[in-house]
Queue: 4 jobs
Job 1
Amino acid sequence: MRLNLRVALAALAGLPAVLSSRPNIIFVLTDDQDTHMNSLDHMPLLQKYLMNEGTTFTKHYCTVAICCPSRVNLLTGQLSHNTNVTDVIPPFGGYPKFVTEGYNDNHLGLWMQESGYNTYYAGKIFNHHTVDNYNAPYVRGFTGSDFVLDPTTYQYWNFTTTHNGAAPQTFLGTYSPDFTAARAYEFLDEGLNGVEKDNTPFFMIVAPIAPHAEVILYPTMKAGPPSSAQRHQHLFRDYEIPRTPNFNPEEASGVSWIAQQPRLNDTVIAYNDEYQRQRLRSLQSVDEMVAKIVKRLDDAGQLDSTYIIYTTDNGYHISQHRLHPGKECSFETDINVPMVIRGPGVPAGLVKDAVVSSHTDIAPTIMQLAGNPLRPDFDGQPMAVHEAVNSGPEHVGTEFWGYAIPEGKYGYSGKYGFIDGPAEAHPNNTYKGLRIESARYSLYYAVWCTNERQLYNMKTDPYQMDNILGDTPKKSKTSGPASLLLGRDLETVVDRLDALMLVMKSCKGHACIDPWRQIHPRGDVNSLADALAPRFDAFYERQPKVAFTSCELGYFPDAEGPMDYHVFSGGVLDHIREQLPLVDPNWSLWT
């Protein structure tokens, strides 16, 4: 490996290499890549060049399990209830919504460009970014770009792109992930030339469509497994989706429409196994791309001055909880996503499994790595990428609005027109979620627009099969979370979770980063464990509870029940509240 000259000189001067110049940053963003079917285990080059040489975050989460809202979240550092981009198509989402909400003039690419970086983008950016609106307006913020465009975004062998804003051009017989990789190499060479010529660093986003389903819109709309390059067709013939306890379980799981799903038959399961094999095959092009990017950086002497961040927009399920291929759900399969970072000062071969981070933290992380100031409207904070020890928050909020759309041969949507199967698009898939992870406890709590609730003790139930708040008791319910949560009863725990969710579901800025301080401004409560202190019982019992008044397809605050929460001052009134028996919460002293 050749060492960058500036890095070597900095080392001789006794300075940290990371301070020798502004680093280059490459952000690889796949589409719908899973963690829980072990896709990273089948990417040996990614393991060699990124995971072995960088840090893997196993508790990293998307905050909304669908591509367009998630990508806006990544580019803005703001949660979807603040961006108001909550779907993949208008009126609630897609590229037009990104524009009308003002984000084409206010996103990470622009901030990096304005701070002196050359910026590049290759691949998919948003749904409904089309051959008709690609220039109305052009996507701002990139020195060079090559975007795949609807209606052929998800066609692997027949797709259309716009290169640096030029008129759309269609490519037949070219494999889309390979094409995106080739464009990435061109932009990388251009960025490296800028570094060599005048020491201008570069920031590049590479977003291949793999392993997203192949979607053909015309003449009839179909969605099936992704295509793969011929050189990879022989791979993974013996692979099967891990037969975990939540794989096509005998008993239904979840709530709302998920709890009504019938078991998958052998034909569907065989199809689903092959579906996932095709997803893994499509990722091999991405795996090769990662290796070639690293080699190009190394050959240019810039590898030690470059951060490479690898993640995906959202996770994916296939057969878990009896579900057809898809995303958009509140389970760990859909929200827990790959996250690997390699770069100057990042510990090599480290796995962080007790730190909760989210996509909302990516833009702040990149801005900090680039030496740029953090924005006050960030709903996230920089990840501790240089620390070997586990540190960070214990919470992440998730949210979703609208339909769940099954994919594949046996998945069909009347709303979007998928054919060849009996399953329908599922309404009432609007929910708010809360994931909490610490050494002492691991919980997932969700409230759906139907006002059904889910609570999983993931220390004892990592596959989310036993909804502790469900109607049907199971054996694990005898312990619940009580043994892990200071011995408190279930209702007491839920009181705290509801209060935390009340903050998270409409938070802005620092309130999203430190939600407990919004409830306890004195700063003496910083975790669920702290909040479970018995002296707060009366206070939390009187807190409003999260509830919906209707199921909507977009973000309408009026449909999402209580928004305000009580604040604990620790003063005389709070002391009186703690000592008194329960009284009417509308009593004037309480407000």
Job 2
Amino acid sequence: MFDNQPEHSIGGTGADRAALSAAGLHKAYGATVALEHADISLVAGKVHALLGENGAGKSTLVRILTGAVAPDAGGMMLNGKPYAPHSLLDARTRKVATAFQELSLIPNLSVAQNLLLPNLPRAFASMVSTRRTLEAGAEILARHGLDRIDPAAEVGRLALADRQRIEITRAIDNAGQVLILDEPTASLAETDWLFDQIRKATQRGVAVLYISHRLAEVREICTEATVLRNGTTIASVDLGDASDGDIFEMMVGRKFAHQRKPRVMRSASGEAARLAVMDLCGHDLQDMSFELRPGEILGVAALEGQGQQELFRMLVGIERPHSGRIEVDGAPVKFSGPRDALKIGSGIAYLPEERKTEGIFSGLSAATNVVLPVMGQAARGILISHGREISVAQAAADRVEMNPRYLSFPIGDLSGGNQQKALIARTLATGAQTLLLFDPSRGVDVGTKQSIYAAIRAFADDGGAVLFYSSELPEIVQLADRCLALYGGRITRRFKGAEITEQSLVAAMLGHVTPEITEGVLA
């Protein structure tokens, strides 16, 4: 279908006009080959997409382009000259900057300090000037349309979406030649700000590498794409000449038939509520009330900052409501944290928003990360049995179609998709009968999404109850039996079955309130 050599590809992205080009890149970690033969060319003033399944080699390619790791073979050119950065900072001095999906910000430093590191303004006796740092940080924020963010704010206290914006802003401000954006919208509900910043960067002649699993936004902002599969560049194509089906086929090696599973409404109305929320208030939430019954998948649709994060955190005791009532299996509860929520009644397991800082223990194996809540099952007496740990972890990993060979790897070395599979496997391994999943497929490829969807459906089909928030409306349309739309910390609409469409969700998420269907019908 497409020539597998990028220099002969559709659109002719040849290295002779490239700002940054790479040819024949190879990288192995012991017996594991992460990158077999990768070629890519980025053109000044153009946005080029990098596509591929999780584990295809995208992260390794980015690490090589940014100097985080050195290739075992192959070479790179920057503006026609050999390019071999030995660190992220070295790449940045050559005006190649990256915004990572797994944020690289220092959480206990201010916004301004994160934006300016390592070159903080100095005052007398080479001491860092706090005043000049804040002034320079404020100037950068204003230049990129983020003057609403306080430059003195501690980064770790910002919402995840604002942390993502700071990461992106720092990269754009340092990218004089090449800007690499790794899943930049994974934590952003809207793309307007980001795309505006990208267009301004390309107008300055910056070449942009855009990595995303969301083809719709790739087509909106990118003109060309390179597809990786199993560590090898399959093709570089003009996106105007390649259909979604063509791209999926290049990514997975076979034709991809996107089939939406017909929604079968489960008859749960006669069952007692597994989880009941009554008049919950606090922080941004106002009068939140709903019920979740066994066998149901209840979606939450909302734009950024409408109270969805506070809702999930209150339900597992991370944050305290000001008023209201939470019941599990008919009994009122007050949790001291997620571990406490696991022990109450039939148990509630929570998948957090940010896997790097709230989910994984990067230095431990994937198997250990999966079995952490049920470590006793992997023990022989007071000692942990490696064999039992792998056995318990594999049983849970099988439910999300995670390749068992990854269980022995440090989880920090895995792709984002496999990290997410491991975390979902961990929630399933707990034996909890209620799952609270916050953006469960954030930043994963189309194949991994289908595995996650299948695991969620299977859990509900077995009598489990699922409450999930997603930043992707098609995911809610495909998965949810019922849906709550939030705006301003309130439920603006409740939908069920065929009423759940992207158009109806968008209207409700923007605050266009219509008379709600009664709780008695939709609870």
Job 3
Amino acid sequence: MGTLSRSYLPALRRGRLLHIALATTALSFPAGALQAQMSYSQAPELAERVEAGELPPVEERVGEDPLVIEPIDSIGTYGGELRFGLRGSSDQNHILRMVGHQGLVRWDPTYTEIIPNLASSYEVSNGGRDFTFDLRRGVRWSDGEPFTVEDVAFNVEDLMLNEAFAPVQTRYTLNGDPVAFEVVDEDTVRFSFDEPNGDFLAVLAAPTGQHPVLYSKHYCSQFHPDYNENVDQLIEEAGAPDWQTLFLQNCGDTEVATRWANPDRPTLDTWVIKEPYTGGATRVVLERNPYFWQVDTEGNQLPYIDRLTASVSQDVESLILAAIAGKIDFGLRHLDTPANRPVLAQNREQGDYRMFAAIVSGFNQMMIDLNLTSKDPELREVFNEKDFRIALSLGINRQQIIDTVLLGEGDPWQQGPFEPENPYYNEKLATQYIEYDPERANALLDGLGLERGPDGIRLLPSGKPLAFQIDAIPTYRADWVDMLELVRQQWAEIGVDMSVNPVERTYFYERTSNSNEHDAAVWVGGAAWIPGSDPHQIIPVNHDARWAIGWRDWYLSDGAEGMEPPESVKERFRLYDEARGATDPEERLAIAREAADIAAEEFEVFGIAKAMPTYGIVKNDLGNVPEEMLNWWDLATPTQANPQTWYWKD
């Protein structure tokens, strides 16, 4: 197999409809079949540990039916380390992207099919209501303990569905009802819903869908009061406020930094933490999991590379200098801005790296979310005026921003897929109000009665200046602050006083996703309402819907919390629930289009420009890395490119 050619790019990019065939069973090798056909090999350092009696033989460590991964180019060789760079103390998802997420199922590298992973096979039955998974036999945690149905039961019953631990996440509910779970036999588990759930497999395939297999019962149960009568003593010793916090401190969660802070926590990951990611850390080290349950097509236990090493930098400039100096072996996250491209391209020979294409489809470089559920009643009232939002959009000179900050690359855009042939393309949602028209913007603001004060800034009904902040994370996207600075200047011309509020990532999430303290915020725009993804810029259903966190809270609490939304939003909530249950791809598409039409009419959020195809760097001697890969969070890129098969050629 060669590098990933354009003919293999995901259906999302080609404009075809992604779907899951619910009537079929995805099969792997029968249990024990590989062991009967294949002899296994292992890294030399592991062979030495077997010889010394420190580890069992490789056949026992990979299990009866290990997952077979076909390298993209060639069988690799063992050894060496892979270096990448982290930003500050809140870059835990970068570690997740490099290590990879190991769920019951996973997307294939082309993002067109969901295939077995920790499950050796799965079956969807009862009209898309029941999901049965046969666990891969013989899998072990990184400390050598068996992975069993008891681990899955602990994860689901004692954590996922335990309101005393945390509210049940919407991804594990349907129409407000949580998924039902049962252990069928010693190798089989089943998840069931009262209604069809067309998105559930895609939910489990995403990096945020690992919860059924995230925690080892034999280790993490010690932090759970149902399993340890002395948990209060552990709470006191750790200085934690409660057992829930104690649990997260020691066992983490899918997207929290403490997931990578405890070397004692057993995992099912490719590499395991040795030097933890904690406050003040300057380096993070992960070493190969000796019990990793994947092999290549010749029976070599993966991964090929011994360890991952990440230096922690406080700014992108340090990462760029490290790349140019040849100290980064793979880089994508943080490096892939337009401003960085020229200097990285010019120094390829010096840094001994090549560049690869990171494909996007339908993203917006930056979406602006006015908080329509702001706690400030005057701002909330004016933000909820559609003409006000239209005026702000018309007051943005997008081409100036593209030419100045994005180096002339990209086109003015609101949101959604770029290609008209894409089934999720919505012309109105994507292209309305993208022209620069300050004269019309001023007329709309005048029509709302927002008169200018002596300094030219418009006044709210109370007489206070029309002023607000937009929160952004400069360490995540450095170009956001630059773009917002131009927007600030452009809006000042139409009498709106906006200021940029750069904040640290953890604080950003707390302000904008949890406490709803923000006036406005920015984020990237999603490509489409693909299976398993939340259309957060169309319907406020998750933490990234920063334009309506109060409405999100109302929806998630079934009306008990938050703010009651208008009827147009309630209708989209209904469509969202209906779409999640649709097992017919065409039915699901029709519902998504209806929701997008409503969002286009309401015009609640607005964007700047089409996200450009980005890029990454990879050392010239690193093998099995494709020349291009889809850059998408639901794949946790580069996870889909199987870093466990990368190897050093020399």
Job 4
Amino acid sequence: MKNTNKLNPLQNMVTKPKRLETRLIIWVTGLCVLQALLFGALVYQLTAQSLHNHIGDKALAVASSIATRADVINALKIPSDLTAINMQIEDLRQLVGADFIVVGDENALRIVHPDEDKIGKKMVGGDSQAALKGERYISVAHGSLGESIRGKVPVYAGNNEIVGVVSVGFLVQSIDPLILSRSSEILIWGLILVGLSILAAIYIGQRVRNAIFGLQPDEIARLFSEQDAILNTVRSGIIALDPDGKVRKLNQRACEILDKPTSIINQNLSLNDLLPEHAEFLLRNQRRKIVGFELFAADKRLILSRFSLQVQGQADGILLSMRPSDELEYLSQQLTKVQAFAELLRVQTHDYSNKLNLIGALVQMGKNEQAIEIIGQESQGSQAQIHNLLERIQDPVLAGLLVGKYHKARELNVALELNPDSLLGVIARKDMLERVVSILGNLIDNAIEAAIRSSNSRSAKVRVTVDETSQTLLFDVEDTGFGLGSDHDVIFTPQYSSKSGAEHGIGLYLVKTNLDSCGGTLEIGESDLLGARLSVYIPK
């Protein structure tokens, strides 16, 4: 059996145009041609109808005029010599341009007709009876000369007796040339319109091509599919937003991280639907870049970055990227902290090297007592602090945090001490420990900064107290700064900071979000060190 599913030869000859401008030219031109044809047909119909009405009115007016002529009425009453009346009516017919003027008697027998051979014969067309009953009208009928538009008027004698009928007609075939002559003008304007549409289509095609960087529709579709696939392949959650917070693009990974169904990707969403606790903060100061910002959302710790979207040099929204803290971003952040701590140790090593050189010089000079005194001064304070800390803080992570903060404060000429009454056991819950480290670390950093700012008027000092009860963890951080003022609500907003620089303003906000996530509270008061005292209570 032969295969009949062969391509039509025309399909091999006619290929589908792929270039956008070619398609636009064909589509716009085809549309304009179709519109021109429809418009032309409509105008032709309206023109023909208008001419028919005009001709009909003219025929009726001429017929009415003839029906009142005395010689016509007399001829109908006494049809003796009809030659004179036929000549007069023929002159009138030629004058008004009618194709025929017929006068019939009360029996519809012709007494006047352009063709003398048809005089005395019955009028044809079947449209004279109503006129013989007294009606005036316009009709279209097929008579002896062909199809025509006729004006029919009855002829009355002096006593209102109908004695005949006048029929004035214009052949349809004589009207068609008038319609065609007017339609030719329409055709010319239609061709001009099609030409202009082709030029407009070329211009539009070029503008559209430039606007889409010369890409063709199939290339745009492929590029969109590739970008969508790439966006859903990356392991980071991506959220693209309009400046007002409306979600422009959302990938599947962001839905997974925020515990949202992927069906919301194609819905109209705002940032409040995804991150209601942090939407206000993330939509403020959109030009400010945020990298590695820790927050709690969807019952998990996230590392979030925010970047301003730039389109042709202008800000056009923001881009959020996020990953859970236990993934690469969190490890990278920890590496950054380790690098910072290594730099701090390098500085301290350089400082100790200078002091060792001083001690060596004193020994060589025989000043042993002075060398021993310097050694004692150097080791007494730090060793006592570290020994006291390790005895009272049993959790190794918190102990390491406080040791690091101690060395950082010492490098910045700030005295950091642990309250002798402090006592804290091991924190068993890993998620609780992570939040405590973030809370305490940020509070100590803020206290060190506050103490430094007031160091010109008093000795810079920070005191840390850690304690616990059977149900609560307690932390106090005090400093010698200038305090936090009376408006305690504003200090927990993301943009609040008493320091300068884009990297500041989120420390206390992180403290608040961590406290909210674990149900803790924070109290602000005045310290006997003349600065602020921040007390944290976290239920176990």
